[in-house]
Design goal:
By secondary structure, the chain is an alpha+beta fold. It has seven helices and seven strands. The protein binds adenosine-5'-triphosphate and magnesium ion. Magnesium ion binds next to loops.
């Protein structure tokens, strides 16, 4: 790598870290997000507070005691945390089970959203490389409008949350056959949350996906299951 490419990459890394630092600063702990403690200017490094718990990805792999209703409660907390992030004016864009820490303590669940490196403002272009859905096959949790139209909205996190929930419930159904089929309203909600249709005439906005799915309607519907 020549010197100018190396220094460009370094500059980009610094910009990326500084952006994440700004998001954490503005969130100020909303959605359980880590708090910004320090930023190093001469090397791309940010120091943030330690959030408690394990990633939901790890919980799903390691904790075989949790059942369907536990995960409904967990996702209610997760959706409330995403709502808190949205209320502070940020869209996460990279939500997945590996980017949320879950703490289970004395029957209580708390969810901390982490990894804000790809976050952007609602309506802004999150600058994902443009590509087809096939190019993004591996990254199914990225909402299609991010890479097809360069627009990020609350519905984009709704997509990612829907994908994460579908994966979790499918895993549970494989592991615990007595879970059976999902309740119809939850099944329908997940289908709506992961509706891929976007409207070219409307700046790539999702057509049917609920606007605040990670937020109030999901929290309400999920709460009614418990
Ligand atoms: N503030 C935090 N408190 C506690 N653990 C954290 C925190 N930030 C990150 N981690 C841990 O470090 C791991 C990697 O962090 P993060 O997701 O931000 O990095 P990443 O490089 O984007 O990883 P990936 O590509 O897997 O998403 C997380 O899965 C989590 O286990
Ligand atoms: Mg991550």
């Amino acid at each position: 790598m020549d010197k100018s490419t190396g220094s460009k990459r370094f500059d980009n890394a610094v910009k990326q870290y500084l952006k994440e630092a700004c998001v954490l600063w503005e969130l100020d702990g909303a959605g359980g997000a880590p708090r910004l403690i320090a930023v190093a200017h001469d090397s791309p490094m940010i120091v943030m507070s330690l959030c408690q718990g394990q990633t939901l990805r790890r919980v799903l792999i390691e904790n075989h005691q949790l059942g369907f209703e536990d995960y409904i409660r967990i996702y209610k907390e997760v959706s409330d945390s995403l709502l808190a992030v949205h209320k502070r004016g940020w869209i996460h864009n990279d939500f997945k089970n590996g980017n949320v820490l879950i703490e289970l303590k004395r029957g209580k669940v708390s969810a901390s959203i982490i990894d804000f490196g790809l976050a952007s403002r609602p309506g802004a272009n999150p600058k994902f490389p443009t590509g087809t859905s096939e190019d993004y096959m591996l990254y199914q949790w990225y909402a299609p409008e991010l890479y097809l139209y360069g627009v990020s909205l609350e519905q984009s996190d709704s997509w990612s949350l829907g994908v994460a929930m579908k994966r979790t419930f499918t895993k549970l159904q494989e592991r615990q056959p007595d879970v059976g089929a999902l309740p119809d309203d939850l099944d329908k909600l997940l289908a709506d949350m992961t509706d891929p249709r976007c409207c070219a005439a409307n700046h790539g906005c999702p057509v049917r996906r609920p606007h605040t799915a990670p937020c109030s309607p999901l929290a309400g519907q999920v709460a009614s299951q418990t």
